[in-house]
Automatic annotation (TrEMBL):
It comes from Streptosporangium becharense. This is Putative ABC transport system ATP-binding protein. One of its GO terms (molecular function) is transmembrane transporter activity. It comes from the Bacteria. GO terms for cellular component: membrane protein complex; plasma membrane. Residues 5-232 form the ABC transporter domain. SUPFAM superfamilies: P-loop containing nucleoside triphosphate hydrolases (SSF52540). The keyword Oxidoreductase does not apply.
């Protein structure tokens, strides 16, 4: 499969802390990549740079051959809404909205009518094991059910890449593994790539490969070699 998303030479500093120290990572179409490493090693910063949430201080990020790290906030925000999906640890659902409207929200933000958006959103409930939960508010869902709603919301726009930062971090182990299996299966079925930050080797097992981050760098043999970038190499 061809490269969908690629970061190279990524550097990000926060004051005197170098969170990323020259990272290159290529994500292929439809693959699931786990990013592992100790707390504070730079995993979330890497995910935020790849996803256009954060601008790196150096390096480049390309989505489908288009450079995205130099785009303005408005353009990156539109790109995140249309090409990317996000699943975070917990609490990212809007508590006052029923589950189906939480799922419909990214479509409505993209200009789809409320009725159409809710109709499309409802189609995700049965495949994700959420039949009958459409009208529940997030507070009326278990942690695992809430994460499945978040997975539906991440996929409803049919993104190219889904980013998940510790998606099982707030769940017990069994629920976490179920959630990860659903996330990996659902992204695969929808031909989206998955980039998932996790501490849990059992979670990483659902992915096609794992890259290890230490002190803002990838361990040798993981990621991509700087300069080996398709179309960007000299
Ligand atoms: N917004 C920020 N301001 C200051 N320092 C930050 C910020 N975000 C991350 N850092 C620092 O950068 C390093 C990497 O953080 P992070 O990417 O969140 O690590 P991880 O996700 O692997 O736990 C840490 O030392 C962290 O304290
Ligand atoms: Mg983190």
């Amino acid at each position: 499969m061809s490269v969908v998303l690629e970061g190279f030479g990524l550097v990000k500093r926060f004051g005197s802390t170098t969170a990323l120290d020259g990272v290159g990572l290529a994500i292929h179409g439809g693959e699931a990549v786990a990013i592992m490493g100790p707390s504070g090693s730079g995993k979330s910063t890497l995910l935020h740079c790849l996803a256009g949430i954060m601008k790196p201080d150096a390096g480049e990020v390309h989505l489908l051959g288009r450079r995205i790290d130099t785009m303005g906030e408005r353009e990156r925000s539109a790109l995140r809404r249309t090409r990317f999906g996000f699943v975070f640890q917990f609490g990212q659902l809007l508590p006052e909205l029923p589950a189906e409207e939480n799922v419909a929200l990214p479509l409505m933000l993209g200009g789809v009518s409320r009725a159409d958006a809710v109709r499309q959103a409802r189609e995700w409930f049965v495949p994700l094991g959420l039949a009958g939960m459409e009208q529940r508010r997030p507070g009326e869902l278990s942690g695992g059910q809430a994460q499945r709603v978040a997975i539906a919301r991440a996929l409803v726009t049919r993104p190219a890449v889904v980013f998940a930062d510790e998606p099982t971090g707030a769940l017990d182990q069994a629920t976490g593994h179920d959630t990860m299996r659903l996330l990996a299966d659902a992204t695969r079925r929808n031909e989206a790539s998955l980039v998932v930050v996790t501490h849990d080797p059992q979670v990483a097992r659902w992915c096609d490969r794992t890259v290890e981050v230490r002190d803002g760098r990838l361990l040798p043999g993981t990621g991509v070699v700087p300069g080996a970038v398709s179309g960007a190499a000299g």
